[in-house]
Every structure is written in C-alpha cells, then in structure tokens.
Amino acid sequence: MTARINWFAVLLAIVAQMAIGFLWYGFLFQAEWMAAVGMPPEAAGAPGSMTAPIIVSVLSALAIAILLSLIVNRGAVGGFGEGIKWGFLLWLLLALPMHAIPNVWAGRDTMLTIIDGSEALAALVVAGAIIGLIRPRGG
Prior knowledge:
Layout: H1 7-28, H2 30-37, H3 51-72, H4 80-105, H5 110-133
C-alpha cells in the first residue's frame, strides 16, 4: 500500500516541533544550552538575524513531518501508538546518533548532546503522535 499525506497533520506537526524548540531553547534549557555551546549569557535576546535559523528550522520540521507521514501512513495500520513508536525509533536510530557523533568528535560538553537529543526526542514523539492521530482520508 502506498502512503498518503495529511497536510493538515503535517502543518500541526510543524507547529508542534517549532513550539517545542522555542520552549526548549528559549526557556527550559536556554542557559544550559548557551553554556554548552560557549555562548555568553549576555548574548541571550541580543539583536541579530533570526531569519536563517527560523527558515532552516521550519524546513527541517517540514521534512521530518513528511517523513513521519510516509512511514506512519504507509499501510492500513496507523494511529497514535504507531506515530509515537516511529517518532521514538527515528530519534533512537537517526536523530540521537546525528547529535552525538559530531559532539563527541568535537569534544563538546556532553550536556549539549543531552539537551539537543532530548529536544529531538520530544519533537519527534509529539510530531509522530499528531501524524498518527490525524490520518489521511480513506486511511
């Protein structure tokens, strides 16, 4: 069976991923993340162009939501649990290693991998749950 994409679910998954990133890096772990990347505390909220990071974040969230849709909606089985399962598996087998490998090789603070990896886990599981809940028509 071919996978179908529910574009409304994709849009909601993008919004959810962006909201999680905003909370993670803007409030919950801002100071810890800034310290882990070596950014001085006074740089928080400093004027600067946010255009490129926002564009990259939205495009990445779009790609992730489409990939999750293609995986979760590939057959007759789907739903909330399937979305969470695939979000978790993509985190464990793809996102976490892609955060950990360059950080370990660069000798960066382990906290950076923990913060980035846990944000990826939250974003992928929530996006997967949304994709799984809002199935394409006829699916």
